[in-house]
Amino acid sequence: MAQRVTCRRVYEDTSAEDGKRVLVDRVWPRGLRKEAAHLDEWLRDVAPSTELRRWYGHEPERFAEFRRRYLAELRDPEHREAAGRLRELAARDRITLLTATRDPDHSQAAVLAEWLADGSGG
């Protein structure tokens, strides 16, 4: 499944290779009109909690700990339905996980792509 899940910035142009386009941010991307995003789904409930997101602050040196905490959050009841929906999408189609962050390689989208590719569900 690794080749079927990619992640990138929501502000980038769409591609024929995208498959299903899924926004995985809790907050709508600043300055982006909904129709310009060309989304198939917005799974805000799969995003990290506000508390975890604020702690992380997109500081790459905190990424390993962010990843560990976020994977634990994905097992929490408030994330379970959205995480299940994301697994369903990835099982059926090629998907692109979208985020507004400037560094998608150190984001929840990257963690989710790895999580989905692993197939263990956490």
Automatic annotation (TrEMBL):
InterPro entries the UniProt entry points to: YeaO-like
Top-rank lineage group of the source organism: Bacteria
A Pfam family hit: DUF488-N3i
UniProt protein name: DUF488 family protein
